[in-house]
Specification:
The complex is a heterodimer of chains A (136) and B (102). With 136 residues, chain A is of the alpha/beta class. Chain A has a single domain (7-135), classed as Hypothetical Protein Ychn, Chain: A (3-Layer(aba) Sandwich), CATH 3.40.1260.10. Chain A is 20% helix and 24% strand. Chain A has three helices and seven strands; from the N terminus they run E-H-E-E-H-E-E-E-H-E. Chain A starts with 6 loop residues before the first strand and ends with a strand. In chain A, 34% of the residues are buried. Chain B is α/β, with parallel strands linked by helices. Chain B has one domain: Hypothetical Protein Ychn, Chain: A (3-Layer(aba) Sandwich), CATH 3.40.1260. In chain B, 33% of the residues lie in helices and 22% in strands. Chain B contains four helices and five strands. A five-stranded parallel β-sheet of chain B has the order 4-3-2-1-5. The radius of gyration of chain B is 12 Å and the shape is globular.
Chain lengths: 136, 102
């Protein structure tokens, strides 16, 4: 692309806490925000558990990194695609997920939802449009 | 003496919970820990198998790992018991052997 801006898509497919993939991916995403690229995220398969609401780590002693997803909107990362079929297979709905939002500078900073529910077929099309896809 | 089976991988990503369910005897205990706790949730594609297991096996889930992932007792299949770390230790002590499904 002539303007040097590429479309990056980070595809999150792993459950949080059991392995380090989710946390590492989130850190790469936050770093990528510094490079003025077009960044979107996907949560599919067990990745949908990464943005589950009400994560409470007091008893397990793990670091609860889920609040960091709420900062993505402030870094202009506001396209978070969640795969519908992945939620359904896990008995989940959008109500089980954190209400992640961003402020739209083109609309008087109105607060809008960042989560976009997509089907598996729609996700395939979105992936096809990317310049770079990074999966974990 | 009955055996304690522990499972620590998500049933949506690995087959270890299914292996455990098919190779554990009646009266044995199955404890879901770490990423396997999501197998205890209601309404999933594996819920029928867990519901069937509850009928003749003692199925438990580690409460702290469940809470860490954002879920509570209200979200899990009826008949699955929540245990804490002390309960985990008790289960290990009460059973003759432990099989870890990794």
């Amino acid at each position: 692309m002539s303007d040097g801006i590429k479309k990056f898509m980070f595809v999150n497919t792993k459950a949080p806490y059991g392995t380090v993939y989710a946390l590492e991916s989130l850190e790469v995403v936050l770093i990528s925000a510094a490079f003025d690229q077009s960044v979107s995220l996907v949560f599919c398969d067990d990745g949908v558990f990464q943005i589950a609401n009400n994560q409470k780590t007091d008893d397990s002693g793990m670091k609860n990194f889920s609040p960091a997803y709420k900062a993505l909107g402030d870094y202009d990362i506001n396209k978070l695609y969640v795969e519908k079929e992945s939620l359904e297979e896990r008995g989940l709905t959008l109500d089980n997920l954190m209400a992640l939002t961003y402020e739209d500078e083109d609309d008087d900073w109105a607060e809008k939802p960042s989560i976009i529910l997509v089907t598996r077929a729609e996700l395939a099309d979105l992936m096809d449009e990317q310049d770079v896809v990074i999966s974990s | 003496m009955a055996m304690l089976h522990t499972v620590n991988k998500s049933p949506f990503e690995r087959n270890s919970l299914n292996s455990c369910l098919t190779k554990s005897k009646e009266g044995s205990t199955i404890l879901l820990i770490e990423d396997a706790v999501v197998g205890a949730l209601k309404g999933t594609i594996v819920a029928d198998k867990l519901t069937a297991a509850v009928a003749n096996k003692n199925v438990c889930v580690l409460g702290s790992d469940l809470n860490t992932r954002g879920f509570t007792e209200a979200d899990i299949i009826d008949g699955i018991k929540i245990v804490d770390y002390a309960g985990f230790v008790d289960l290990v002590a009460e059973h003759s052997n432990v099989q870890s499904w990794l």
